[in-house]
């Protein structure tokens, strides 16, 4: 769930739902919340791991992904500042093991609310109930969108969409082909072949560790040509 967030590193009291928690709830949080800073590529959760609490991103970005039997990774969704890990919440309330992996996409600061504390807040604080319901609903939509991408688009469309979504305002994407392949759940060789096609058509320019959009309209057309996008 995208929660109101201010620029720069956050504290829990800067996140809208937590600002409206009662005095007892705020005392619980002050006593038990653990704030952690994790380095780039640090793995926070692994598939099959027990979840100890609710994870909220205060700064940076987390990547939630799956790993196929052949070792290929595929991104499910990202957790940005002011957002919580919805899969972790689902595990907390249903006594499940974590079904994916979570890794720091950038140097990241998180707030970990221990499971018993989060459950206590959920039982007594309407704002936490609302946050949880909206977060779990968001999980359904995000995973549905990912399934639609996988089943109804080809690798070229998914790559074009990924570049458009992740590129900076100047059209640059500072990622290696290997990193892009991990996000899309394919191999570096497939990404390299598709990028060569984009380069030949004048859509992008590639350099070591970076991609730059040259023709944004044509790249959009690659995503959904039948809609004239």
Structure characterization notes:
This protein is α+β, with helices and mostly antiparallel strands. It has helices spanning 16-19, 23-32, 86-94, 115-124, 126-152, 155-166, 177-184, 188-200, 216-223; strands at 34-38, 43-45, 53-59, 62-67, 73-79, 101-104, 108-114, 172-173, 204-207, 210-213. Strands 2-6-4-5 form a 4-stranded antiparallel β-sheet. Strands 1-7-3 form a 3-stranded antiparallel β-sheet. It is elongated. The two termini are 28 Å apart.
The oligomeric state of the chains shown is: single chain
If classified by CATH, what would the architecture of the largest domain be? Answer: Sandwich
Number of distinct beta strands: 10
Could you give the order of strands across the largest sheet? 2-6-4-5
Can you describe this structure in just a few lines?
With 229 residues, the chain is an alpha+beta fold.
Task: Set out the fold topology.
Layout: H1 16-19, H2 23-32, E1 34-38, E2 43-45, E3 53-59, E4 62-67, E5 73-79, H3 86-94, E6 101-104, E7 108-114, H4 115-124, H5 126-152, H6 155-166, E8 172-173, H7 177-184, H8 188-200, E9 204-207, E10 210-213, H9 216-223
Antiparallel strand pairs: 1-7, 2-6, 3-7, 4-5, 4-6, 8-10, 9-10
Helix pairs in contact: 3-5, 4-5, 6-9, 7-8
């Amino acid at each position: 769930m995208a929660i109101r967030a201010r620029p720069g590193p956050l504290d829990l009291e800067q996140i809208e739902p937590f600002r409206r928690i009662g005095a007892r709830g705020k005392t619980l949080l002050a006593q038990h919340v653990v704030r952690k800073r994790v380095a780039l590529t640090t793995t926070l959760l692994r598939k099959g791991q027990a979840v100890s609490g609710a994870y909220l991103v205060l700064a940076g970005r987390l990547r939630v992904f799956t790993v196929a039997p052949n070792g290929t990774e595929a991104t499910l969704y990202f957790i940005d500042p002011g957002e919580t890990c919805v899969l972790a919440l689902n595990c907390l309330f249903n006594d499940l093991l974590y079904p994916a992996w979570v890794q720091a996409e950038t140097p990241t600061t998180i707030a970990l609310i221990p499971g018993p504390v989060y459950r206590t807040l959920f039982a007594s604080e309407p704002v936490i109930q609302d946050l949880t319901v909206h977060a779990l609903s968001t999980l359904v939509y995000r995973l549905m969108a990912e399934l639609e991408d996988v089943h109804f688009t080809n690798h070229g469309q998914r790559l074009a969409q990924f570049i458009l979504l992740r590129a900076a305002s100047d059209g640059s994407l500072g990622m290696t082909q290997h990193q892009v392949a991990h996000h899309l759940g394919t191999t570096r060789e497939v990404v390299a072949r598709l990028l060569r096609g984009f380069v030949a058509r004048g859509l992008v320019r590639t350099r070591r560790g970076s991609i730059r959009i040259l023709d944004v309209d044509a790249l959009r057309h690659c995503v959904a040509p039948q809609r004239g996008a």
